[in-house]
Fold this protein.
Amino acid sequence: MLFQKTYTGLKVLFLSLFFFSCSVEDIDPVDADLDNSTGTNPINPVQPNTSGSLVYAPTALGKVSSSPQTFGIRNDKKLTDYEAIATNVAPFNTDEFPDFRSVVCIQIEDGKDVIVGSGVIISSQWVLTAAHNFLLPEETKNLPRLSDVSILIGNDPNRPSKSLKVSQIIVHPHWTSSDGGFEKGTDLALLKLATPISDITPAEVNFDLNGEKDKAYIWTCGFGDYSQQAGQNKDDYSKKHAMVNVLDRIVNGLTTTIAGTTYNGGLLAFDFDAPDGNYNTLGDNIANEQERVLGSGNSAPEALEMEGGTVQGDSGGPIFIKINGVWKVCGLLHGGVDEVRAGLKDSSYGDISIYCRTASASSWIQSITK
């Protein structure tokens, strides 16, 4: 789910997703009628609704009509609502929200094209991201030149507060021999910064296999491309955005062996619920081959007030889960399930997003960064 933008007319070249316009209805994002009067979330009753912005409040089914298609965000919201959360400016600067400053934009120059992905700073010298931002094993085994890779700091990649270079790109050993799929949870890469960064607090990574809990609230963040959507500047890169969801699947126990060494992998996944309760794809009885890799489980149909999905360019962006009171990076975005259901487009309602799990890959990550 990376994307390319070419300098020739600044036209976006999409690798796999079909981009389309979405309508926006004029609905108050904090309408009191959409709040849950009990003060608890029926999706996850152990986590109370305490946010003044009601981001965790589930939409009462039937309260909001939804188009069968949208793109990455609820069609009754504005992209600027999700961008505001990612700034961590009040009221999004409490411990109800992760510190999104560690999430960075990764740009790779490739001739006239620029490949854009996302990543997260996990120490003063390391950025964790997805391996497919740098190579697709079914197409090439060659990494880009280090001089062509830039790490952009800040919320707006068009005007970054800082641009950093990398001294090393390390992809998971299994990724280069894979077919480019998510099935083993090895779509991971580490970037070593040429110069340590000291003015951003690194995100903490979860290495505890028992850390994530089913149906926990999760936050995702990245620089996915909305430039071709209505109301957006088609020549600009999209700003950092963040959205909330509910964790629907936790997969562990995936293993691969390379040159006599066994590597562990795992996955996290969620679906993008529609405000009217339709397209609850991880809660229905329809599952293609890719979805079956995620195992069995259930999913509530209610969409959270600031729920969203993932789009091209979010690749490598983190999924944050609060564990013992601390927001931790638990996975990096690989992409989504193909053809979840007939008639559903990528990044629309029903789309299933899949993250490679950090706890499962803890040995590999820690062997490099420590």
